[in-house]
Design goal:
By secondary structure, the chain is of the alpha+beta class. It is built from 11 helices and 9 strands. Helix 1 packs across helix 4, helix 1 crosses helix 5 and helix 4 packs across helix 10.
């Protein structure tokens, strides 16, 4: 399995599941600097953690366990591309935003071939909400907007969502002009939904070792609700995620200025004759939407298939465990580092002080923050 395994898994997860975190209580995890296995430094004494909000009426006793509320539909319906919200979808489609979809074009808004930013329609305050963390805190208007608010979480996810938005527009371009704009949109949307379902059931699940019984037709008596057990345990495979991405391109694809900019962010640049490789630590690839068009959609998608994912075991890469996000703050707007960097002062908050690691071992150097519980 390549890194497309966990990437598709997250693309699918963001289609059918999103917890309701409004009103969830803080339950920070204490940090023990004396732990002999802990090689990181934390100047804040804890890793921030918020519990999911309890579904009303649950968690009231031993016979009524606490449940989470899923804000998605639980169906494999490409909501990660289109959203389940008509208002959000209207914003994403080409055309005006006035509550009347008959004014919309058949295509998804893709300025320059990439997902729209929050300021794509002028006022970023009117854009649909989205998760902002890491370096995006310095300029939230740079955020991509897509059917799901978590689109900016990492470069692999952003690339996959861009791919399927482009696929929608490709299909629209093949449809006859005798169809209305709305008919073209709905036909393309159905095909993209079917593609996501087909890939999931005929490629993704078998590749992950899941063998389902043959489909015997629609059963209206089946409860499709996403269970707490599945969402929080059964569908967790974070140990498969690498601590870095490796992307390649012909030497000359990126200018020297671009390569210098990559290195300034903490990307390792390796030029070997006619080929240039970029090694992107996970903490640089998270909440960094500018990185996708800078590298290019092609190299990113190809790079995901060029390296096998880790085994599903108890070992989680330290890039994911402890050093996920880099958070710029006044006085240290870059807050980056690399394997050979000296430890920096505690100028990213809240933060774990650690660095980019290419394996499952701690590194040294950059100011980052731990994985939030909502991912």
């Amino acid at each position: 399995m390549s890194q497309w395994g966990w990437t598709w898994g997250q693309f699918l997860d963001h289609t059918f599941g999103l917890r309701d975190d409004v009103g969830g209580a803080a339950a920070n995890i204490p940090f023990n600097a004396a732990d002999p296995l802990e090689e990181f430094r934390n100047d804040f004494g804890a890793i921030g953690f918020n519990r999911s909000a309890a579904t009303p009426g649950t968690g009231t006793g031993t016979s009524n366990p606490r449940q989470q509320t899923n804000t998605e539909s639980t169906f494999v319906n490409a909501a990660v591309v289109y959203s389940n919200s008509p208002a959000r979808l209207e914003w994403l489609r080409d055309g005006s935003v006035d509550g009347n979809v008959t004014n919309n074009g058949p295509t998804m808004m893709l300025p320059g071939g990439y997902l729209p930013r929050r300021d794509a329609r002028g006022n970023p305050a009117t854009a649909p909400p989205g998760d902002v963390d890491g370096r995006l805190r310095a300029d939230p208007t740079r955020s991509f907007v897509a059917g799901d608010k978590r689109v900016n979480e990492n470069i692999a996810l952003s690339a996959t969502q861009t791919l399927f938005a482009r696929e929608h527009n490709r299909i629209v371009g093949l449809l006859p002009n005798t169809l209305s704009a709305e008919d073209k949109f709905q036909i393309a949307r159905r095909i993209v939904m079917a593609e996501q379902q087909y890939i999931t059931y005929t490629e993704f699940l078998p590749a992950m070792g899941v063998r389902l019984p043959a489909y015997n037709g629609y059963n209206p008596n089946v409860n499709p609700t996403l269970s707490n057990e599945f969402a929080t345990v059964g569908y967790r495979a974070h140990s498969q995620i690498h601590g870095e991405f490796e992307f390649e391109g012909d030497t000359g694809r990126w200018t020297q200025a671009q390569l210098d900019a990559f290195e300034a962010q903490g990307v390792e640049v390796e030029v070997d004759g006619a080929e240039t490789a970029l090694v992107v630590p996970l903490n640089v690839a998270f909440f960094n939407p500018d990185l996708l068009p800078a590298i290019g959609l092609g190299p990113v998608l190809e790079g995901l298939s060029g390296e096998s994912q880790y085994d599903n075991d108890e070992m989680i890469d330290n890039q994911l465990r402890s050093v996920l996000f880099q958070v710029p703050v006044p006085g240290n707007p870059d807050c980056t580092g690399s394997d050979d960097a000296a430890p920096q002062p505690a100028s990213c908050a809240p933060s774990i002080i650690a660095g980019a690691s290419t394996g499952r071992r701690p590194g040294a150097g950059s100011c980052v923050r731990p994985t939030p519980s909502s991912r």
